[in-house]
Amino acid sequence: MKYGTIPEGAVVLMNSGWTSRYPNKTAVFGSTKTSDPTTFHFPGFHEDAADWLVKNRNIHVLGVDTPSTDYAQSTTFPVHVVLGTANIPAMENVANLDMIPEKGATIFAAPIKLFDGSGGPARVFAIKSVYPVGASAAISPNALVVVWFLVVAFLLTKQNH
């Protein structure tokens, strides 16, 4: 395996190269009918892959550089169901994935506070990890992901108050 085993608690991001299609809406959705989802064409995760990552790698986030974690013409959104059932957030339309290393980066996501919403814009950025993979540190890169989850959980509990 070129990059080794996906570590437990990882942020898994699919780099399909879709960043090059933005901001051209017809290129992003793979269709000239950008208001008709039945015509969309873009890659996403297969539900079996998402399920395996959740069950076997205990991932913290799953993300893509396309408009959805599911394939374009999905009507049942099985990857969303897998992730939602496991309480794992998804990130879509993540730009510039070709600029981060295949492993060894720390991913940050700063979502905006929303009222009564299931998703919204976030600033997502990465830094090359300062700790070697497997090394212990006072604050590990995985701890930073946990902090992000606490922020999301706090925002979700406050949106109804």
List the helices and strands and how they pair.
Blueprint: E1 11-14, H1 25-29, H2 47-57, E2 61-64, H3 78-85, E3 90-91, E4 105-111, E5 122-128, H4 141-158
Parallel strand pairs: 1-2, 2-3
Antiparallel strand pairs: 4-5
Helix pairs in contact: 2-3
Short description:
The protein has 161 residues and is α/β, with parallel strands linked by helices.
Commentary on this structure:
The structure is a single chain. Mean pLDDT is 82; it is low at 136-161. The protein has helices at 25-29, 47-57, 78-85, 141-158, and strands at 11-14, 61-64, 90-91, 105-111, 122-128. It contains 4 helices and 5 strands. The protein is α/β, with parallel strands linked by helices. Helix 3 links the parallel strand 2 (61-64) and strand 3 (90-91). The protein has one domain (11-158): Putative cyclase (Glucose Oxidase, domain 1). The strands form 2 sheets. It has a 3-stranded parallel beta sheet with strand order 1-2-3, with no helix packed on it. The protein has a two-stranded antiparallel sheet with strand order 4-5. Helices cover 26% and strands 15% of the residues. It is globular and about 45 Å long.
Structural descriptors:
alpha/beta, Glucose Oxidase, domain 1, 5 strands, 26% helix, globular, disordered C terminus
Outline type: globular
Looking at CATH, which topology would you report? Glucose Oxidase, domain 1
Question: What is the beta-strand fraction?
Answer: 5-15%
Could you report the average pLDDT, rounded to the nearest whole number? 82
Spans of at least 5 consecutive residues with low confidence: 136-161
The helix fraction, in percent, is 25-40%
Number of domains: 1
